[in-house]
Amino acid sequence: MLVAAIMDIVTSNCDTIEKTPFKSSLPGNATMRDIAAAIQVIEEGGMYFDEPEKDDDSDDGRSGIKGIGIKILEGTTVLGLSRTSGLAPLGDLNANAGEETPKTFALLSKHDNSSQANLSSAVIPGLWDDLHCQHVAVPFAAWALANWAMASDTNRSHIQELDRDGQVVMTALMAPERTVKWHGSLVARLLLEDLKLPLSDSVSDWSSSLLATVSHASKTEDISLAQVALSAFLVSVDRSDKAQKMVMEKGLHLMRDSARKTRKHKAVQEGLSKALELLCAGDMHLSLEESQKWSGILLSWVLGKVASDTVQSSARRILSRTFEDYGPHSVPISQGWLTLIMNEILNHSKTVSAKGASLPKNEKPKVDQSKVTSATQSTNLLAVAVVNLAMAQLGTVPESVNNVPLADLLLSEPFAVPIKNLKKDSPPKFNAAESALATIKAIKSLTDVCAEDSVCQNKIVDFGILCLLRRFLLSDDYEKLGAIEAYDASRALEARDRTPDSLGESSITDIQDPCSVRVPASAHIRRHAARLLTILSLLPQVQKIILADETWCKWLDDCAKGNISCCNDPKTQSYARASLLNVYCNQQDGSGSGDGGSSKPDISNMNSNCPRYGDMIFLINPGLPHWKCHEKERQSGKKNESSSEGEPANVTDTVGDHVVDASNLSSSIDPSSSGSHVHDPEFDVIFLHGLRGGPFKTWRIAEDKSSTKSGLVEKIDQEAGKLGTFWPSEWLSNDFPQARLFTLKYKTNLTEWSGASLPLQEVSSMILEKLVSAGIGDRPVVFVTHSMGGLVVKQILHKAKEEKLDKLVNNTAGVVFYSCPHFGSKLADMPWRMGLVLRPAPSVSKHYYFIELA
Questions:
Q1: Is the domain of 66 the same as that of 137?
Q2: For a Cys staple, 532 with which of 123, 275, 447, 577, CB 3.0–4.6 Å?
């Protein structure tokens, strides 16, 4: 049909409903009679015409044309459709083609000029003569109603008044003609967006019909119809609680189907994500099963290349809400998210490695390849953990994974291989401790890969890693998962005790003893998550996110002070304080957001007003008052001075005042120094370990060596490294309250069997970069070194002199050497004595080279 075809062409070219290609060509002050005529046509599915008779309501006393009379803008042209009798039935379109066709329709035109007073009633033959009236009238009426609704709020008020029960709009939404559905959806959206109009009782029915239209249009790839229906559906869900309830009960599967069918269309995906977020934002919650069914789609939105920033943000918020609602039961989803992030990063690393194959050969690519290899193993291990935990929670292995709520997630890569390897006859035996261990290895590997690669860091931020880190730090999911496991084991044990002896022992041999349930290593998860957060906290976009989250900021501050029972680990406390300092003090420094990949910045240009604490530097006693950002306070003072200009207070100031307030910080130093004003530290003390050492274990001593079980010195040192007193924290903080204490970490391996490490020069350059970024060298500094650490410090000072970093060189007040191999080391020479069995690590190899030169 011509009119319907034209309207289909118009509507099918609407890429976005906000940019419809046509403007309303109808006036904003349409008469009630015109609107009523269009509504009647839509409601009755056609046009009824009576014999001409006296029209009492006619303004001019003539027997006017029965039909739709519409005044067109830019003139006063009137269109009308006339018929001499009855309702034209739909009938058979091919019946009696040779029969004379009556001229049932006439297109009447009138141009209201002062010189033209008579209305031409001539019947114009042509395209309209053989058309049945429904084919023209209903689409034409729907088009008119949509244009009137777009023209003005007065017209919308008239439409609402004439269609109080909403049945006319509902009829248009359910019409078989595509163009009627399109314009009916537009009318529904315009009425719902007008907050001055009361909601119709049929809004929930509109939502149901609109969602059905979206689903059907998605299957037929009618994207323009899906968009306009989805835009109206979105407003209905936003305004009507009944519509939300209807969708939660009956419509979620249609939304999922539409999301699967329109993966390449951003606008539709964006509308669906907004609608789902609206459903989850209020008092209603997705059930656990629905959350699992949506997990695959949500994660594809978070990680998808097609998805817009809006879709990614909505998906992250929905997933975070799921974690809050279902805690330990949502662990497979959070682990799946982490697995997919690692898989994307590994693909990125392989692409970068392929492009950089022609680079000069040195030890750095070997180290990077070692990290990628370890990350690949961790990814595969975590993928297996996701599958096993999902099946363990399900209690059985189904015949088809398609019937599992997590099907969309588990059927994607890299979970497909573990799914195929499942044994159908028995569910896998898996526990919370193994699940936590897989998560720890994954976070550690991801951190190692991204630690020096800013492109990788920005990618994982876009992929939503901050949501996972926040969950790992603030929640107790794995502890609760272990508690559930222990409870289930105890219930099974009670059931066994009540089991008659006649059942035999074979049926109870698989019951787990509650005492054998291992406690998940959640403290290690927090430590590695905090480390990754510290690295990412140098990125400006991450700083804004953390700064806006008062709960997260408070948790980090309490953790740094040691006020949280789960944060007794000194590394975790240091990471927490370093993250806060990076957030508060590096707002104006954009060097962390560069897109130069893993290329190193020029350390001679890294002097900054605010310290930047990276991965290799640990703060000793991070709860002390002098760990604060003085530059932050100075900037706050400037903002207070400019408050007279009318600038609103920033959330940064509010959170910053809460965290930086020294009077709230507990410390073990002289109380006189813990008032509201704290003096700047006078000097820095840096501890640097040696071969096979660590930032904390090297500087511990056993509290009572006579109480150790082993008389071996090595055993005593090992026990001291884990449980002994960390004397720089316990002693020096009291002796030197005016000093900042740091301890550094770098990788030291005797052999390549224990992992790749960088040569001495590169290790020294990397540490020098971290020291300068942290502001070490701005005041007097003393280095305390052990073993190979002494050689590293000498190389650092030599490199600093070459780079003309005079502040660090001149402010180095002294270096303390403990067992530094200035003239050689038997331990470093050990790999060569082992011959072909062990190969020396690059760091030791360079060490040996310098020893020979000496």
A1: yes
A2: 447
